[in-house]
Structures are given as structure tokens and as C-alpha cells.
Design goal:
heterodimer; A: alpha/beta; 5-stranded parallel β-sheet; B: alpha+beta; 6-stranded antiparallel β-sheet; 5-stranded mixed β-sheet; 15 helices
């Protein structure tokens, strides 16, 4: 069973994705901001992280950068999620920092997002 | 009088001399020559002595008479002239000589009068000219005063204009420089006049500007120097002496004389730091608003889809339809919010385009990929005919937006047949056409096509179809990228052909 960490500052969205991942056979944990991510990672490991970009305190890009520069964490695949219309620059930035993909939440239903994640894990 | 006396004296003395000579010399000579000749029983001598006495008695009065005549004929006119001349010399210019006779003396008098008259005329002319010159000088002084007052007003005007104004001649030398320009650039008015404007004003492009569209910072002035009217530029900054970069809005216009020759260029520019801040705030507001609006909508959409997918257990079948309606309503809402935000950005001129070389074939293929499933469902042929190496200068995301809009529209309004995407290159533009075999658009509706919130044929299709903003946004985006978007051809029941153009990559 794959383990996924869902990171989003919006509790409603967090719960929504949690349910979806669970119903698709994933083990799920969630974090509500960047700092919590690293707390969680201290005690557990994950197969993939689904990371919201717009968050207070530490935004998705900062988290991603920190993950990729931490030796034990840099190999965990990360998918970025955002609510804003994806500007090319942000997408490029995300991919450059090492994210697997950069998805606009509104373009996909939760099921579609989970399906994509499953696709990444198969590789 | 002196002359008269002289003449008289000479006459009398002369006559006396002649008489004495006759009496004492001639007579005795004659007598000695013919002592016996007797006329009327008198000797010559006696006769002559009688004659002499007679002569002496008659002669002086005769002489006096003769002298009087001479004086009258000759001397009086001369005396007259003398007296008049003295008067004229004394300044009495009205005096005129009397012409007594027709002879040389008369002529002399006439000539003298003429000379005097000429002199008088001459003096009169000089006086007149002098008066005229005085008047002219008064006029000029008055005009000069008016000009100076006007100049002072103009200078006051220029000084009080809040915008910076400067003017250059054809050799790019500054001849006009107002106080505002001086303050913003850090150079004094005296320093600036007479120098090439590039030495005084340091213009540069803002960091966000793509150099391909703007040329260099001074191109708008170059264009005005060539005679192009009213060029404005909104992507410039001026670097002040202290190194501060100030965003400015500029406008240049050629200065023309009455024969339409270019004398120079006048440039007006304004510090738009405040406006840029406002724009920045609007952008931030839009960003925040969009984030705030979308979060709940994403939640609703996501959860409804999950309910329908039975993530929360079995649902009452009767709930299926209403929940689907909720889902489609939410989708509509999301699209509407996105479109409204796009329109807001377009109208506020706050769309940031990231222009680069875009492979058109790939963009079109990506779009087709997106719509293939739907096309297959409706059994519509979705094809494209694009040259492989075709590149345009555009923002790839916006190109996708336009393609999605046009292909999406075609799919909506086509029930059978095909949708074809073609490209044509002509001069410096690439024309991309989306042609379908759908229901077409009547000429009347075509006029309203690009208006905001205009939905054509929604009643015909029975279902609400989109936001009505798609074509408006697509057209604005095309324009912002240097192209255009229009409906090439469409007739009811004969399908439609929409075309948009983009600049070819060099």
C-alpha cells in the first residue's frame, strides 16, 4: 500500500483528498503547512507528497526546495497543486525545483488527481 | 547802396575825364587843325565851348538817370535776392524771391527759389521719415512687450505643468526643458539646454518589457523625429542622477512648421510610480480574490464529484441528477470566475505575456489531444494540417487558451462532420483557422459575436453554453500578442471558420 502525504492549508480540501486517496487504497497522512511537513517526515516516510503551493508561513516552493536539498528527503516524489491559473513561469519554476508535476486543482476532479498520482508511482 | 555809389562815382569820374580830355586836348587839337573854319560865324573853339557848357548842364542829370536805370534793372533784383537770401539764411524758409524779369537775373532768381524749395522739401521728407521711424519704434516696443509677456506666461505655464516637458530640434539638442523635467532628472534647466537629450535624460526599458516589441528605449522619439504622430510608450523608466529608477509614461509628437517640415520633437512624460503601485495592488487583489473564490468552489466541485462516485457510500438514486446539476453549476461558476478575472486583467492592461518562440504544431497537437475524447464521443472528425517547423512569437499558454476556446466552441456547435485546423503563412504573420461543419452563425448574430456575455443560439442548443466571454477574451489575447481574431466565414447550417493570426518568429 502506497503512502501519501497530503499538504494543504484548507482543511476542507485536505479532508476531501484524504478520503479520495483512502478510497483508492492509499495510506494517507496530511499536514496543514510547510513546517508540519518536516515534522511528519521526521517520524515517517512517504511514497509521494501532494503539495499545495499557496500556504502561509512556508509556501510550496520553499518546502520543495528544502526537501530537495535534504539528502534523506530529496528522493521523495512531489506533485505540486495550486488553485491559481498556472502561469508558465510558476510551472517551470516548480519543475525546475524538482517537482514531478504542477497541477491546477480546478482542472481535475479529485479522482483524476489520484489517478495521476497512481500513474507516477507506477514509474 | 555801396554798389550804386561805386557805379555812380565811376560814371561821373569817367565822364568828367572824358570832358576834361575833350576840352583841353581834343578841342585845341581840332582848332589848331582848322582855325578858319567857321560854322554859323563862330570858330570851332567857340562852338565847342558852347557845346561843352551845354553838355555839362545836361550830362550830370542824364548820368544820374542812366545810373538810376542801371540800378533799377540790374542792381535792385540783386539787392532783393540778397535781402531774401539773408532772410532764408536766418531761418525764415517761407521767403521767396520776386521774379522781376525774364532775363538771366530773373532766371537766377527762379533757380534760387527752386533751390530753396528743394531744400525745404528735403527737410520736410527727413522730418516725415523721422516721425515714421519714431512711430515704428513705438509699435515695435509695444509688440516686444506683448511678446515678452506671452513668453513669460508660457514659461510660467511650463514651470507649473506637473508633467515633465522637453523639446529637441532635429539634431537631438534640447531647446526646451521645464522645471518638472529638471526635478525628475536631476539636471538644471541651464545645464540641459543646448545638450543632446540623451546626455541629460537616461531612459531605459522596464525589466518586464520584451525588447522585441519595444525596440530600444528611445525608439519612440526616433519615430516622432521621422514624423510619426503622437507616439506613446508605457514601458519606460527614467534613471535619475541619484540612480533611482522611476517608471514613466511618455508621449512624443513631431513639431511641424506651417509647411509641415519637421522642426523637432516635443516629449511629455510623467512619473507613474503611483499608478504602477495601484496596478500592483489590483493584481494582488485579483490574485487573492481568485484564490479565495476558488478554494470553496474547488471544494464543492470535488466533493460533489466524490459523492457521485460513491466515496461517501451509496446515495439515493434520486439524488444523482440534482447532484450532477450542482456539479455542472459549480463548473459554470468556476469558468465564469476565471473568465471574469481574465477580463479584468485584460481591461486593466495587467496581462503579463511571456512571449517566446512557440512551436505551433505542438500547441495545436496538444489542444487536439485535449478534445479528442469529446470529438470521438460525438463522432466528429478532428484533424489538423500544420507544417512541422512552424514557430510563432507568442505566449504558449495564451495560444492554448485561444485554441481551446475555438475548438471547444466548434465542438459545441457541431453535431456531425468535421473540425479542421489549418495554418497559412503570409508576410510576417501566421494565420490559424478552425473550420467546422456545424450549425453556423447568422450574419445578424455575427455582429454581436465578440461582445461580452453574448451567447449565440443558447436557446437552440437547449443548454447553457459557457460564459459568453470566451471569444472576447480570445480576441483580446490575440491582439495583445500582435495578431487578430475574427470570423472568416459562416452561414447558417454551413458551418463556421474562425481565424486568428500571430506574428511569425523571425
Amino acid at each position: 500500500m502506497s503512502k501519501v502525504l497530503v499538504v494543504d492549508d484548507e482543511p476542507i480540501l485536505r479532508r476531501m483528498y484524504e478520503v479520495k486517496f483512502q478510497n483508492n487504497g492509499f495510506e494517507v497522512d496530511s499536514a496543514e503547512d510547510g513546517l508540519q511537513v518536516f515534522d511528519k517526515l521526521k517520524t515517517a516516510t512517504f511514497d509521494i507528497i501532494v503539495l499545495d503551493v499557496m500556504m502561509p508561513k512556508m509556501d510550496g516552493f520553499e518546502v520543495l526546495e528544502k526537501l530537495k536539498t535534504t539528502p534523506e528527503l530529496k528522493d521523495i516524489p512531489v506533485v505540486l497543486l495550486t488553485n491559481l491559473s498556472a502561469s508558465n513561469a510558476d510551472k517551470d519554476k516548480g519543475l525546475e525545483l524538482g517537482a514531478l508535476d504542477y497541477l491546477v486543482k480546478d482542472d481535475f476532479t479529485p479522482q483524476e488527481i489520484v489517478t495521476k498520482v497512481q500513474g507516477y508511482l507506477k514509474k | 547802396m555801396k554798389l550804386t555809389a561805386k557805379v555812380l562815382l565811376i560814371a561821373i569820374l569817367g565822364q568828367l575825364f572824358v570832358l576834361v580830355w575833350i576840352y583841353f586836348v581834343v578841342l585845341p587839337q581840332l582848332d589848331s587843325l582848322a582855325p578858319e573854319v567857321k560854322i554859323l560865324s563862330l570858330t570851332f573853339e567857340s562852338l565847342l565851348k558852347i557845346a561843352l557848357v551845354f553838355a555839362v548842364a545836361i550830362y550830370p542829370p542824364t548820368i544820374v538817370f542812366v545810373v538810376y536805370l542801371i540800378v533799377r534793372v540790374v542792381l535792385n533784383p540783386i539787392k532783393d535776392m540778397n535781402a531774401t537770401a539773408k532772410q532764408i539764411a536766418a531761418g525764415f524758409f517761407g521767403a521767396k524771391l520776386k521774379i522781376h524779369s525774364n532775363d538771366e537775373i530773373g532766371e537766377l532768381a527762379t533757380t534760387f527759389n527752386q533751390i530753396i524749395q528743394n531744400l525745404i522739401n528735403s527737410v520736410q521728407n527727413t522730418a516725415d521719415s523721422y516721425r515714421e521711424v519714431m512711430l515704428r519704434e513705438e509699435e515695435l516696443k509695444a509688440n516686444l512687450k506683448i511678446l515678452e509677456e506671452a513668453k513669460a506666461k508660457d514659461e510660467a505655464l511650463l514651470t507649473s505643468i506637473g508633467d515633465s516637458v522637453f523639446a529637441i530640434d532635429k539634431s537631438e539638442t534640447i531647446f526646451l526643458f521645464n522645471k518638472a523635467a529638471s526635478q525628475i532628472s536631476g539636471a538644471s534647466v541651464e545645464e540641459a539646454k543646448g545638450k543632446n537629450f540623451k546626455q541629460i535624460l537616461n531612459f531605459q526599458l522596464t525589466k518586464e518589457t520584451s525588447t522585441q516589441s519595444e525596440g530600444h528605449a528611445y525608439s519612440f522619439i526616433d519615430q516622432a523625429l521621422k514624423g510619426e504622430k503622437a507616439i506613446s510608450s508605457a514601458n519606460l523608466e527614467i534613471v535619475s542622477r541619484s540612480g533611482k529608477e522611476i517608471p514613466i509614461s511618455t508621449s512624443a509628437a513631431p513639431i511641424l512648421d506651417k509647411d509641415q517640415n519637421i522642426l523637432g520633437v516635443v516629449v511629455v512624460f510623467r512619473d507613474i510610480t503611483h499608478e504602477k503601485e495601484l496596478d500592483h495592488m489590483k493584481d494582488e487583489f485579483v490574485s487573492i480574490a481568485s484564490h479565495e473564490l476558488r478554494t470553496p468552489m474547488t471544494a464543492i466541485r470535488g466533493l460533489v464529484s466524490m459523492i457521485l462516485e460513491k466515496d461517501f457510500g451509496e446515495i439515493n438514486p434520486r439524488l444523482k441528477a440534482p447532484l450532477e446539476d450542482v456539479a455542472s453549476s459549480t463548473l459554470r461558476l468556476i469558468n465564469l470566475v476565471n473568465d471574469l478575472l481574465d477580463v479584468s486583467r485584460l481591461e486593466g492592461d495587467r496581462v503579463k505575456l511571456r512571449v517566446k518562440e512557440v512551436n505551433l504544431a505542438k500547441s495545436i497537437e496538444d489542444s487536439l489531444h485535449l478534445f479528442k475524447p469529446l470529438a470521438q464521443e460525438k463522432k466528429i472528425d478532428l484533424t489538423s494540417e500544420v507544417a512541422k517547423k512552424l514557430t510563432v512569437l507568442a505566449d504558449p499558454d495564451k495560444v492554448q487558451e485561444i485554441l481551446s476556446n475555438l475548438i471547444g466552441n466548434s465542438l459545441k456547435f457541431t453535431d456531425k462532420g468535421s473540425i479542421q485546423i489549418t495554418t497559412v503563412v503570409h508576410e510576417k504573420l501566421v494565420y490559424i483557422g478552425v473550420r467546422d461543419t456545424g450549425v453556423g452563425i447568422s450574419l445578424a448574430d455575427q455582429k454581436k459575436l465578440f461582445n461580452k456575455f453574448q451567447q449565440i443560439g443558447s436557446r437552440v442548443r437547449g443548454r447553457p453554453v459557457g460564459t459568453g466571454l470566451g471569444l472576447y477574451i480570445s480576441r483580446e489575447l490575440a491582439k495583445k500578442m500582435g495578431g487578430e481574431l475574427w470570423i472568416e466565414k459562416s452561414h447558417e447550417n454551413q458551418g463556421s471558420n474562425f481565424v486568428f493570426s500571430l506574428p511569425l518568429a523571425p
